[in-house]
Design brief:
This protein is mainly alpha-helical. The chain contains 17 helices and no strands. The two termini are about 20 Å apart.
Length: about 425
């Protein structure tokens, strides 16, 4: 079964945008700790800000998408904000200005993510939703691999050529915005769900709803909707949010893992962007297979089990004198972790909530994860500063080893519930 053309078009948008954003992100950890001479505690603050700046905005983006029933234009606004920050980076100088612009870029990312994922869910067959998200994440990750690769080539050819990286970043951001505006249709999930429900009623010979008083009143096209966060009180949604937040609190930012590898092995700084390429290459190869696996055996199972790969990455990064094999294993395990969690979380949240609040549910789940990862970066930066590199990594690995079985037991019933809903 083929994926929707909407998924493919959104994949190209994400590919171009991720070339733009990841080219900048790939040089940031080394730029802060190397070129600017800041400590890992400072980088922990910046990395946490990058993670947390998206938390509340993801929820707002999902809410705006559901409220107005025009997710494309909410996403367009988010992509536009990010494109403007690329132009700002060409003019900015100094640590504070660059950090502020990167934080604003993350706000744009948070604004666009939930509406984009809501469009993927609305245009896909529910039975192959994991596959659709996997295909999109494959496109996304191609861009995420090409961005650091472009940064590596620029820095190889032009030492300290950060401005050139920013020019490339701005151009790709503008192209991605153009593809979204011109090639992605203005899907209206709320209207489509309402029409489908009433079409089925008519085919079955059921009487028409007088004044549309059925349980999808809020989905009526053109009708005013009284938005409700009641979906957050549903047991399945609460379980997902709680477990996702707990596991994200034990998810160290990639930049810390890469800094750990460089600190341990002492390789030249010009090779640093290639660490991002390695992780994203693994993610790119595994995103679609992991999405298919999630559709087949259960999305909750795959989501939780993928954190075992993250645990393995921490242990590899903590090893003293690990060398090339340990570095490659770390990058592969990180790619596997993202392939089994990123799109799968959106697929889970999108199926647990109804069409009227799908964007809000996805945005809330992503916001919980972003907020928890912000705290994780701050706490890990402090742990590294006080305990040292290897003890800090082993500490978070031990905590994650305890959390994964708890998460597995908590989320396991969700897969059976979703299978029952799909069969109904």
């Amino acid at each position: 079964m083929r994926v929707s053309s909407v998924v493919v078009a959104l994949g190209f948008v994400s590919l171009l945008t991720d070339i733009s954003s990841e080219a900048v992100s790939a040089v940031l950890p080394l730029f802060i700790t190397g070129a600017l001479g800041m400590s890992t505690l400072t980088y922990g603050f910046v990395d946490g800000l990058m993670q947390g700046a998206t938390a509340l905005v993801r929820v707002v983006g999902g809410w705006a998408s559901d409220r107005g029933d025009h997710p494309k234009w909410v996403a367009f606004l988010g992509y536009g904000v990010s494109a403007l920050t690329r132009a700002g980076l060409l003019l900015a100088s100094g640590f504070l200005a660059i950090t502020a612009l990167v934080a604003v870029d993350r706000v744009g990312k948070g604004m666009r993510t939930a509406p984009r994922d809501a469009m993927i869910a609305a245009s896909s067959d529910p039975r192959t939703l994991g596959r659709s998200f996997g295909v999109h994440r494959t496109f996304d990750t191609v861009g995420a691999a090409l961005g650091p690769l472009a940064a590596f080539v620029v820095l190889w050819a032009i030492p300290n050529g950060y401005r050139t990286v920013f020019v490339i970043s701005f151009g790709c951001a503008v192209l991605g915005l153009a593809v979204l505006g011109l090639m992605v249709p203005d899907l209206r999930p709320r209207r489509a769900a309402w029409l489908e429900r009433h079409r089925v009623r008519e085919e079955r010979g059921l009487p028409k709803c007088k004044g549309c008083t059925c349980d999808l009143t809020a989905l009526a096209p053109g009708g005013k909707q009284s938005f409700s966060w009641r979906f957050l009180t549903e047991p399945g949604v609460r379980r997902l949010m709680g477990v996702a937040g707990l596991l994200a609190l034990l998810t160290v930012g990639d930049g810390f893992v890469y800094l750990s590898l460089q600190t341990r092995d002492g390789f030249a700084s010009k090779w640093f962007p290639l660490l991002y390429v390695g992780t994203n290459a693994a993610y790119m190869c595994l995103a679609t297979p992991m999405g298919r696996l999630a559709d087949r055996i259960g999305r909750a199972k795959v989501f939780v089990a993928s954190h075992v790969a993250l645990l393995g990455a921490y242990l590899c990064a903590a090893v003293v004198g690990g060398g090339t094999a340990s570095t490659v294993a770390t990058l592969a395990l990180l790619g596997l972790f993202y392939a089994g969690t990123d799109g799968v979380l959106s697929a889970l949240a999108g199926r647990l909530a109804g069409p009227a609040v799908r964007g809000s549910a996805i945005g809330t789940a992503q916001g919980v994860v972003a907020g928890s990862r912000m705290c994780a970066s701050w706490l890990f930066g402090l742990a590294w500063f006080t305990l040292g590199r290897s003890p800090a990594m082993l500490l978070v690995a031990g905590l994650l080893a305890v959390a994964v079985p708890v998460a597995w037991r908590t989320l396991r019933p969700l897969d059976a519930r979703l299978r029952t809903q799909a069969a109904a």
